Amino acid sequence: MLLELVALVVFFITLCKIVDEDCKKRINSALANDRNHQEIKLEEVQQLDEILEEEREEEEKILERLSVRKFTMTIFALFKTSSNSH
User: If you ran DSSP here, which 8-state letter would residue 31 be given?
Assistant: First the structure.
């Protein structure tokens, strides 16, 4: 009877260790998948940030060109006004 009880206790301890190892493997696998997912999301965010920065630079160039055109048109309008008044 005592021998059977000891065998049963050893069996449950072994079973708990196996389950514990399996749980650790699953947890580590889930953590690794989560890290990979976060890295992918980080890469996507960085790519979107780069695209946004390129669009900002392009917008600045366009605004700069518009500003130069507006200045040029103003100068021409002033010359035209001054030449019409003479």
Answer: H
Q: How many CA atoms lie within 13 A of 24 on its CB side?
A: 6
Sign of the dihedral through C-alpha 11, 13, 15, 17:
negative
Domain ranges of the chain: 21-86
pTM of the model: 0.53
Distance between the two ends of the chain, CA-based, in angstroms? 125
Q: How far apart are CA 10 and CA 12, in angstroms?
A: 6
Q: Tokens 């953590």 map to which residue? A: 31
pLDDT digits (tens, 9 = 90+) for 22-72: 999 999 999 999 999 999 999 999 999 999 999 999 999 999 998 888 888
